[in-house]
Specification:
By secondary structure, the protein is of the alpha/beta class. It is built from 8 helices and 10 strands. It has helices at residues 19-26, 63-71, 91-97, 115-118, 136-147, 195-213, 216-219, 225-238; strands spanning 2-7, 31-36, 49-50, 60-61, 78-88, 102-107, 112-113, 123-126, 180-181, 184-185. α3 links the parallel β5 (78-88) and β6 (102-107). It starts with a strand and ends with a helix. The structure holds adenine.
């Protein structure tokens, strides 16, 4: 997969070139093309923004340098703008994007885009109901969530399947050595060797974490008879 990013701050993107994603870049499992759209301005001061028509505070990013930067790409694939007013990003979007050959992200900074920039994009996507100073961190989060799903990026490919969100429940708690840390013991069932009991315990814990932290995720879920029983138990445990 090739990913282009139009940004005023290409230097911010070092996290994507580190660790597993960095190894993936070296191994050519994916490719990152950072384009500074300030290089596509035509005035001496390299302005990328201007005051809003109709007045008001702040500045607005102009369409011209962004359109020129987009047109400079040999191909673009799906074009995505990161902005707080977009649809909220989620795992399902990452799974959909991971099937594309190419993605192009457009990052704003400090200010909004001229409305005509949004019309250049296929999707406008937010990472949540809060405002950041720019689209770079959201873009990095979205790229990370997408690229880690590509074949050969995660060491253990099973780990992308087994985790939070992919089954509609949050992840169950995990433990590793030592079995006793300053009196805090690992739940006995996990050291019992009884695989069925372990699977049941994990299912129960995943349901409990979801009920406590993300009850909204249970609203659209059709619970099995076993899960309904577990949920009754969780509620009585909490009473
Ligand atoms: N730019 C600024 N805030 C943002 C957010 N929450 N999501 C996506 N892009 C943004």
């Amino acid at each position: 997969m090739k990913i282009n990013v139009l940004t005023l701050f290409p230097d911010m993107f070092t996290p994507l070139q580190t660790s597993m994603l960095g190894r993936g870049l070296e191994d050519k499992k994916w490719d990152l093309n950072l384009v500074n759209f300030r290089n596509f301005t035509s005035d001496v001061h390299h302005h990328v923004d201007d005051t809003p028509y109709g007045g008001g505070a702040g500045m607005v990013l102009q369409i011209m340098p962004i359109k020129k930067a987009l047109d400079s790409l040999p191909s673009k694939g799906k074009v995505i703008i990161t902005a707080p007013q977009g649809k909220t990003f989620n795992e399902e979007m990452a799974q959909r994007w991971a099937k594309e050959d190419e993605l192009t992200f457009i990052c704003g900074h400090y200010e909004g885009f001229d409305q005509r920039v949004y019309d250049l994009a296929d999707e406008t996507v937010s990472i949540g109901d809060y405002v950041l100073t720019g689209g770079e961190l959201p873009t990095m989060s979205m790229i990370d969530a997408t690229v880690r799903l590509l074949p050969g990026i995660l060491g253990n490919s099973a780990s992308a399947v087994e985790e939070s969100f992919s089954h509609g429940l949050l992840e169950y708690p995990q433990y590793t050595r030592p079995a006793d840390f300053e009196g805090q013991k690992v739940p006995e069932v996990l050291t019992s060797g009884n695989h069925q009991k372990i699977a049941e315990w994990r299912h129960y814990q995943a349901l409990k974490a979801t009920y406590l932290n993300r009850p909204d995720m249970l609203k659209d879920r059709v619970l099995t008879a076993e899960e309904r029983k577990m949920l009754d138990q969780i509620k009585s445990e909490l009473d």
